[in-house]
Amino acid sequence: MKLETGKQGTSPEMEEYDDEDDDEVIDKSCYSPPMIFGPPREGGEDLFVPPLNFAMVDNGVFRSGFPDVANFSFLQTLKLRSVLCLCPEPYPEANWEFLRSNGIRLFQFGIEGGKHRTGCLVGCLRKLQRWCLTSVFDEYQRFAAAKTRVSDQRFMEVFDISSLKHLPMSFSCSRIA
Amino acid sequence: MKLETGKQGTSPEMEEYDDEDDDEVIDKSCYSPPMIFGPPREGGEDLFVPPLNFAMVDNGVFRSGFPDVANFSFLQTLKLRSVLCLCPEPYPEANWEFLRSNGIRLFQFGIEGGKHRTGCLVGCLRKLQRWCLTSVFDEYQRFAAAKTRVSDQRFMEVFDISSLKHLPMSFSCSRIA
C-alpha cells in the first residue's frame, strides 16, 4: 500500500478516500466551503475540519471519506504526498486544484458499486499485518456502522495473502525514514 | 498527552486503555489466553489479536479497550514505553508482569463510573489539535457506538483549552525524533 518512500520530517505517504455514503449523517453546515461561511471558529481562531471518517491507519497512512473544500486546510497539515481515490466518478476540479497546488499525486482506482471500499482495503492490509479476523472486522464495523455488509467481510476473509508474504508488513513498523 | 520523548527507531510514547464495556460484543474465543487455546493461526503462522477498539490516535499514540493476555504478542510489536490506564480497578497481575518484562511504565488515573473515558480524553486532545466539534464527535461516536452519551459530548464541548494554548499540539506533527 505504500506508494512512495517519505523523506525525514515530512509526513504521510498515502491517503485513502472513499465516498461511503456515510456523508449523509454529517452536519453539512460544518462542511460548508470556507469561502462562503468560513471555517468554524473558537476563541477567534479557525478550527480544522477533518473529513468524515478520518483516521490514521498506520504511520503516514490515513483514511477518510471523500473530502471537500472545508477539509483542505486540515489536509494541508498532513503534508500528504499521494492520494488514493477508490471512486469511479470524475475527480472534482476543486480537489484537483488542491492536489496540484500542494504537489500531491493522485492514484485513482475507480471501483464500481462499492460502499466500503476503503474499509475492505484496510481490512486486506490488516491481514497482511497478521491481524486475526475478529480484529479486522472490529475495525471494519467501526467505520461501516449500520452499513456493515456480510459480502465485504467475506471478501476480506477470503482475501489470499499467501502470494504477498514476501512483503514486510507489520503494524506500526513502517518507519518514516 | 505525551509522557516521554521517544528515541529514533522505536515506536509509541503512550497507549491509552479503557475498559469500555464494548467487550461484551467481542468474540471471546479470539481473546482466549494463548496458553490455553493458542493464538489464532493461519497458514501455520500465529495471528495477532489487537485489543478491542484498538486504533492509532496520532504518531506514537494508541488507544484501545482493556487488553488481556491474548493481546500481549500484538502489543509487544508496538514497542510501547508507557501505558495510561483510566480504570480505578486494581491493575491485573498478568498485565503488570507484561509491562514489567517489556520495560513499560504504567500511569493509572482511575476515573470512577466512566464508560468512554478514553473517548473523552481523545476528544479533548482533538480540541487541542483544533478539530471542530463535528469531527471530534464523529470520532467519539465511532468508538462509543450505541453507548454514545450526551454527557460525554458536553464534557468535550465545554473542555476549556484556553489555558493549554502554549502547548504545540497539531495532529500528526508530533514527530518520533
UniProtKB/TrEMBL annotation, chains A, B:
Entry superkingdom:
Eukaryota
Q: Name one Pfam family in it.
A: Y_phosphatase2
State a GO cellular component annotated for this protein. Answer: cytoplasm
Q: Which Gene3D superfamilies match?
A: Protein tyrosine phosphatase superfamily
Is Lyase among this UniProt entry's keywords?
Answer: no
Q: Which SUPFAM superfamilies match?
A: (Phosphotyrosine protein) phosphatases II
The answer to keyword Hydrolase applying to this record is yes
Query: Which of UniProt's keywords are assigned here?
Result: Hydrolase
What Gene Ontology terms describe what this protein does at the molecular function level?
Answer: phosphatase activity
Feature: compositional bias, Acidic residues? 13-24
From the UniProt entry, list the residue stretches annotated as the region Disordered: 1-24
PANTHER family assigned: OS09G0135700 PROTEIN, TYROSINE-PROTEIN PHOSPHATASE
Q: What is this protein called?
A: Tyrosine-protein phosphatase
